[in-house]
Amino acid sequence: MSGSADEAADVLRDAIEGGGDTIEVTLKLPVRTAEKVLALLEAESVSGAVVVPVKDLYSTTEAAAMLGVSRPTLMKLIEADEIVAEMVGTHHRISAEEILAYQRAREVSRGRAAEAMSEFTSRVSAGARSNVTFRHRAEKAR
User: Fold this and answer.
1) Long-range Cβ pairs for the range 84-92 (8 Å, 24+)
2) pLDDT tier at 7 (50, 70, 90 boundaries)?
3) HSE on the CB side for 101, CA within 13 Å?
4) CB neighbours of 67 closer than 8 A, spacing ≥ 6?
5) pTM score, whole prediction
């Protein structure tokens, strides 16, 4: 951390030690540190989890593991331009920001799909009646 980042960390520590449910602080941070803090807060608000990237670029194997997909699936996503990757020599590298952006987009997509399924199920169950006759029932009726 740079000098101002160290000072900001001290201000936060002091405020947290002060107790209470919320704290209010004013920080002076280098732009790169502020971007990292913002990414951390955005990740927490979207998924409830805090993701702290250790490095800026990840290999396809690392990114696939973080996304919970296979490496071949990740390569298909890269080829389809759903995930942006950089070439480092002959290897693809994916930025931490791109991994986070894809996770957010996937979460939104899953939410929409769940809503659509729920709506469809409600419509089907509200207007549906059984048109299935089981042989066992038909034989008892005779």
Assistant:
1) 85/60, 86/57, 88/57, 91/59, 91/60, 92/59, 92/60
2) confident
3) 9
4) 74, 99, 102, 103, 106
5) 0.51
